[in-house]
Amino acid sequence: xxxxxxxxxxxxxxxxxxxxxxxxxxxxxxxxxxxxxxxxxxxxxxxxxxxxxxxxxxxxxxxxxxxxxxxxxxxxxxxxxxxxxxxxxxxxxxxxxxxxxxxxxxxxxxxxxxxxxxxxxxxxxxxxxxxxxxxxxxxxxxxxxxxxxxxxxxxxxxxxxxxxxxxxxxxxxxxxxxxxxxxxxxxxxxxxxxxxxxxxxxxxxxxxxxxxxxxxxxxxxxxxxxxxxxxxxxxxxxxxxxxxxxxxx
Length: 249
What we know:
The protein is α+β, with helices and mostly antiparallel strands.
């Protein structure tokens, strides 16, 4: 199958970018979007041209590094699927597609399809961790967690930090990302010791780079980890709790 691609090219941060049109005429429906970019780059290198810069690592939908925007949709047309698992079977022979980086004011473009998502890292540094006492490991039954609670925490912990939720939101909000982290740690005993401090620190950091929640739910549609919209409620819940219990934690 043949695909015509309008690919965003940008040499460096702050420089003007533009779309560059390329054709790949030996693609197959089983190929992923990243494999399509690999095929394009092989052809560019063979012709002594600069390959397209894009990020990838595991290509198994785990690392969250591969995010790009396809025809205006973060990751691609298949909902809740990372870019590395978006198959060309979603497109038809001869189709023209537009590939660009994840678009958000919080994600400055580094080069071509690569963006700087360190704003998400700063949120984790601010409070996305727990204090663990030193010494020998506690007994397995020292901290009791119900099965239901453990499952809820694991559902929230599934977030891979790809940042597509921010790019999908018209306001560039990071509430699904932050909410999943806050909910995950608040559900487990090891995360309760710094619960209030964590919420204040992470929410303060979030407000530095990201916008307010749009309440439309675009974020959940593109999330590869299927983080539910209920995670967003944890942002307000943990924020209000930390305000009213400021002296307690």
